[in-house]
TrEMBL record:
Tree of life domain: Eukaryota
A Pfam cross-reference name: FH2
Biased composition (Basic and acidic residues): 7-33
Gene3D superfamilies: Formin, FH2 domain
InterPro entries listed in its UniProt record: FH2_Formin, FH2_Formin_sf
Region feature (Disordered): 1-34
Originating species: Arion vulgaris
Name of the protein this chain belongs to: FH2 domain-containing protein
Taxonomic lineage: Eukaryota, Metazoa, Spiralia, Lophotrochozoa, Mollusca
Length: 100
């Protein structure tokens, strides 16, 4: 008799259904729920791969984005080095991408 009894604390969510009759266990999670918080109104200018590469590149300096831009504008290249500046050139958009 106890083998077939339902534990209401454990089994109630496992067998629950939503208003449309679809079991909760079969319902697919919304992508915003699956990835945490969702930012409303965010516009992506870069594709995902390039955005990731830019973020990885900028993290190596351990400076804010504003500080990096300021150093580049003022010509303080000793902080970056020639090799890093060449890497930055590879990440910059091409003229075709700018024109598009």
């Amino acid at each position: 008799e106890e083998l077939f009894s339902l534990n209401h604390d454990d089994g109630s969510k496992r067998f629950s259904r939503d208003a449309d009759g679809v079991p909760d266990s079969k319902r697919k999670k919304d992508s915003s729920e699956a990835h945490g918080s969702f930012i409303v109104g965010q516009i992506n200018i870069l594709d995902g791969k390039r955005s990731l590469n830019v973020n990885i590149f900028l993290k190596q300096f351990r400076l804010s984005h504003q500080e990096i831009v300021q150093l580049l504008r003022e010509g303080h290249c000793e902080k970056f080095g020639a090799e890093r500046l060449r890497s930055l050139l590879k990440l910059l958009p091409s003229q075709e991408e700018i024109d598009a």
